[in-house]
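Folds vary. Our protein:
___
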Amino acid sequence: MPYRGRILATGIVLLFNVLRYFYYHQYLGLPFYWTFFVLTAIFLSIAWWAGKQFDKVKYLSERDPLTGTYNRRTVEEYFHKAAKISDLKKQSLGVIMLDLNKFKEVNDEFGHQKGDELLIQVATALTTFVGKHDLVARWGGDEFVVLVDNMQENTADDYVKELQQAITLRNAENFPNVEASVGYSLYPQHGKSFQKLVQEADAYMYKDKKEH
């Protein structure tokens, strides 16, 4: 969970207390008492707590509670920002759709708790595999979306195969029969709207799923 809210809140309170010190004790010449430090500590504690609540709410609003990856709303918002950056750099932006094969069988045979464990492991494999400027989101159920910065059209197929292998290897011990069907589309080659790119990647993914 990021600390932005806590840092900002305590920073503002700290600045306020520095200004308070100079105004009352330097500018006005009022006597300085040790209680100044007590009040400052109390104010900082309250600011840290309030900032923590803000960070928590922001984190939960952006993330999938089970896997810790981003949620649908966040990935859509991020796409628009990433697309603008891609336009400026004249690069492609990859939209990858991923769906687990035989996920229903895992739930039916071992129970939903085991299915949740699989989703968490897949999310971990994805976030470990992607680059620092890429984004992983849970689309729903056993589907994930990955936005890949500067995804090259001539190497996209190889990238997808490596991603599939990373998921299989990560789950080889506990879920040896689980693999992922993957499809992708590229911005702006296959479309400029996020909805269009998701549709293209989804169609590609289900074609891959039928082959398995």
User: Anything to note?
Assistant: The chain has seven helices and four strands. The two ends are 38 Å apart (CA to CA).
